Task: structure prediction
Amino acid sequence: MREHRIGGSWALGLPLLVLLSGVVVPRASAAGTEPEKRAAWIAGTVAAEDGAPLVYANVFLVGERDGTCSRRDGTFVFKVEREGTYILQASYIGYVPWRETVTVIPGDTLRVDIVLSEKPVELAPVMVRASSFTAADEDGVTLTTLDIVTTPGAAADVFWAMKTFPGVQQVEEGAGLFVRGGDVSETITVLDGAILSHPYKYESPTGGFFGTISPFLLSGTYFSSGGFSAEYGNALSGAMVMESLGMPQSSEMTLGMGLAAGSIMARIPLVEDRLGLSLSGNQSFTETMFRVNGSTERFIEYPSSWDLNANIAFRPNESTTLKLFCFGEQDQLSVEVHDPDYRGVFSGWSENAIYNLALKQVVGKGLLLSANLARNRFSAKRQLALLDLRVDDWLEQGRVSAEYQIDPRAQIRTGLDWFRIGADVSGQVPVETYDLDPEGEVDPLDTHYRSHRPAGWVEGNLRLTERTVLIPGARVSYDKVSAETTFDPRFSMVYQLSPTSSLKLASGLYHQYPALMYYDPLSGNPELRAGRSRHLILGYDYRGETTQFRVEAYDKRYERLVHEDETLNYINGGHGYARGMDVFLKARLVMFEGWSSYSYLDAKRLEGEFERLTSPDFDVTHNWTLVLKCGLPYGLFAGSTYRYATGKPYTPGPGRHNEDRVPPYKKLDLSLSTIRPFFGGKIVYYLAAANILNRTNIFDYRYSEDFSRREPVSSSFGRSVYFGASVMF
Amino acid sequence: MKAVTLGMLIVGSLVSTASCEDTGADFDGWLVRARANLDSALNLWDLEGMMGARAEFERLLATRHETALVHYYVAYADYRIAIYDLAAEDKEQCDHFLDDGLEQVEEAERLRPDFSDAPALRAALYGIKIAVSPVTRGFTFGPRSGRALAEAYGIDDSNPRAYLIDGYRLFRTPRLFGGGHEKAMEKLRRAAELFEARPRDKTSIEPCWGHAEVFAVMGQIQMEDGEFDAAEVSYRTALEIDPDYGWVKFRLIPMLEEAREANN
Result:
């Protein structure tokens, strides 16, 4: 600011001023109790940083009526009746308000030249971090809840919907998230701050068929395919972070019935804005669906499941929120297995229980404290020929974190985690891994694993300049079984090219402990250390009003992967890499909306039984997904999803690990829905047609022991339909 | 030279300095006067006057930032200025005011959750957001506008401005997507009834705008439907309520005359 005073006599100015503003002077003299000579004037200019005058900027004394708007050339002048010290403020839409203390002396003109700075563009978390996507009902998110439930082929499942983003490979038809050349186990799933050890229903080696948590129970989801926060550990590749529903604002009830499932949900505010309850229940019964559509599978017991959820939100005061999330789920199935050497039945049953008490406490103006106490218990039985296993595992966790806004440019977050994990495995397994002969040799199992894993993390969010934000962070973790401490420094940085576009850079170290069974003193190696990956991501992001575009290149290096060893069973001798590029485009035009994701991946690993760097099962070179949706007249809503993926690697013969690829994966899904009024509420009718091209997608081949015969492992359905309705009150 | 410039500036700033001098310092009076200034500027379609009134609300805000009504009136001024900018085809500036208006009205809602006029105004701001770019924004802001109105009705189902904004929304929404002239007229007639049931108190600091506007919008609908006589009655009614209503006097009635002539 330049400020100077014009002398009390006003020299040439006063006579001219009086001449030109003849109306003002008599009015002021007549109305005021003080003579005109006691009045003072504040005059000057308001301009932007580039020198351009700002028209109609509001310049005034705070707490007084004295003030005016700047003119077309940015100049302003106004009279102050009383002497004294005031705060002079200038404000203009889109600019940071300017304030300065000024002293007004009767008879003087205070000259002030004001320069206003444009307001910095607010950077939402999703804008700051590379490789992140969100789903919620807010501005700027990548997917809304409606997107998830109306995406054709996403089966109204969050995980399936996330698979339409780049960086997630189409390895099998299921919910499993294989992220940027990482195995499904390398992605962590978090709900309300607590880690879910079993996030999938109908679990399989590739994850599971559905996500455990329905999108209707969620208020928001954040998915990162790399470069994620130091808050999340024990994951080499990705993070899926979900937030359950908050306080219900009004009573709602939803009843749903489809070809394979029925559901009920109620949201009840018990005490307005203080205490609320959300209840839900789902029951699946797939027999009718399989009978209507036919299937490549022959079920002895059709897949079925139920789940119940109670979510209580309590806000004793404006600063405190407590949320108790209780969830129970059970699923089972029994299906014939057609193996070249064996025909039998696989039976699976599992039970999952999640309890999470989450606290959020605002302290003062800038401090947010969060805490969790959670328990996730999982039990499963698996039977196939000689294999007969029962697994009971649990994860207990206590987490506290604090978030403090130091000033508008700096924030610090830190937290402590404590995990207690355990697993009991009993039953028998074949001596030879793939031996399905009912008369074969077995190893009995009765093992118990336990460990404690404390961890701590810290992360800053620093706006270095108006255009640059840096997020440095670090995480330290300790595992009791291996007595190993890991240290993960990480950082993420964004440079704002314009209000809508930015460049992003992220890098960091990520550790993940092997599954507990690898530490078994007899069949594993208690000396195993955590696997490690290094992420390096560079990306460009554009977010226009109707268009989002993102392109990212990444390089991920794996070290200390678990590798088989003849003497020690397992060692940390594995390594590998995954590098590639992800492209994402989302656009909206009138009634059309859609997105397209493309991923290129090149991944190799020396891991498990591999003898050299080899493409892992999830090395899918090209993935392309195109989702198109369209609002039609009369409340109809139509959508289509097309997916293409390079065939995944398979092993065509002894010693030829993953040398061939199955045919490419191609699938076209369509959907149609409509919302109608229904006895004071509304009803949604939906119809989904999957695999319209009736293509048999092959995911693998099962070979006979001598590799002379093989059976394809293909999708369960050819062309199929699903329909249903949901009533909402 | 500096002195010459200074003198000329003072002449130019007569309006705003004058309005600062002759009003009592009490809050209610200040607010009512600023609102009257905004009304006058609207009738004259005078951007400078609108900005001046908005500046006054903003000055009030600097001292009473915890008062929902002040946030509301800043948002209301933003709404009117955004309409002016839209008519002047300055969409960027229009968006700036709409964004500020939304921020202000949300603050008003936070401070006074039972204030039905706030979500109603938010719905109106969304409506102008759509008008800036109907093709790209309709599907985003249309449902939000509907939800905001539902909130307004939920708080007070006898708020005439909610019905006025709803009527205008339905007028501008194609029948295919749930709008239409009949539905709009139904809401506007209800708005008129409610306005008549609570006559305007110009001394109250609570919002009291919109009564004449109901008939201005009715007239537009009737004009589009070719009901010129009915439109004239509506416009005359609007002018009976507010004889200085510039939009009707200088814009809509001449348009009606032109339409009549073209029809003959």
Summary: Chain A touches chain B through 51 residues (CB under 8 Å). The mean pLDDT of chain A is 85.
